[in-house]
Design brief:
There is one protein chain. By secondary structure, the protein is of the alpha+beta class. Helices cover about 40% and strands about 15% of the residues. It has three helices and two strands. It has a two-stranded parallel sheet with strand order 1-2. Strand 1, helix 2 and strand 2 form a beta-alpha-beta unit. The protein is flat and about 40 Å long.
Length: about 90
């Protein structure tokens, strides 16, 4: 992303978390060289501070993007999350 540092508050999702945000699932590889895992930790903390239901899943050994067994693990986690939060029973 290219933006002026002074514009960071306008584009930072951390600064836009509110109590009415939807349940949020974060999934991050601990070997991600493109996006530091600290971003997911900080986002999770911001959601938690605002009492937004959230979950952070760290995939050990995974880089940016998921393939093979990692992709299967991530897909299963997303399906589980969606079933809980988007089910007609909720």
């Amino acid at each position: 992303m290219n933006f002026e540092p002074a514009d960071a508050p306008a584009v930072s999702p951390l600064l836009h978390v509110t109590l009415d945000d939807p349940p949020t699932l974060l999934i991050h590889g601990d070997q991600d060289g493109l996006v530091n895992i600290s971003h997911s930790h900080r986002m999770y903390e911001a959601l938690h501070e605002h009492r937004v239901e959230s979950k952070l899943i760290i995939i050990e050994g995974a880089e940016h993007g998921f393939r093979g067994a990692e992709a299967e693990q991530v897909t299963a986690a997303m399906v589980d999350w969606f079933e809980v939060h988007l089910s007609a029973d909720n």
